């Protein structure tokens, strides 16, 4: 190959690279959020100040958007994991940072549950290990198959993802 052909190939390659890089369009695309993103989180909660019937310590639950993506409903779900307190999952009613529902169909098994006084308070909690400021959650809950039906008071904080705050 002659030097002239090598220079032409090199020049063509340089132009191709420059055109490729220049054609990359950088959009400032904002994917947005969900209708209930202010309430959506993973939570560590205690029942009745940690002395309730489920034993001492924290339990894990999640709140998240429904497929309908409307600001009036969200899922309440203990995720059936090792740190859950009851097999419970259902759609609760949402109004601002408050949530509730009576005789909510439990999607984990045939039963219902009721939540009253549910609320999320932004930046109102300090995680126990890291001391990071995080959201607080509070609600009262009862289960139709609890005998006798008892209303439990539950409070906790949003999961920070710091290992020292996980239970």
What this model shows, in words?
Strand 6 and strand 7 (133-143) form a beta hairpin. This protein is elongated. Strands 1-2-3-4-5-6-7-8 form an 8-stranded antiparallel barrel. The protein has one helix spanning 3-22; strands at residues 41-47, 59-65, 73-77, 89-95, 98-105, 112-126, 133-143, 152-158. It has a single domain, classed as Beta Barrel (Lipocalin), CATH 2.40.128. The chain contains 1 helix and 8 strands. 12% of the residues lie in helices and 40% in strands. 22% of the residues are buried. The longest helix is centred in the first third of the chain and has 20 residues, at 3-22. It has 167 residues and is mainly beta. The mean pLDDT is 86.
List keywords for this structure.
single chain, 167 residues, mainly beta, Lipocalin, elongated
Q: Compute the CA-based radius of gyration.
A: 25 Å
Largest sheet: 8 strands, antiparallel, barrel
Spatial separation of the terminal alpha carbons: 69 Å
Q: Write down the CATH class.
A: Mainly Beta
Quickly give the CATH architecture: Beta Barrel
Q: How much helical structure, as a percent, in the residues? A: 10-25%
Q: Which sequence of strands runs across the widest sheet?
A: 1-2-3-4-5-6-7-8
CATH fold-level label: Lipocalin
Please identify the structural class as seen in this structure.
Answer: mainly beta
**Element string (H = helix, E = strand):** HEEEEEEEE
List the domain count as a whole number. 1
The tally of helices reads 1
The 3D shape can be described as elongated
Q: List how many beta strands DSSP finds.
A: 8
The mean pLDDT is 86
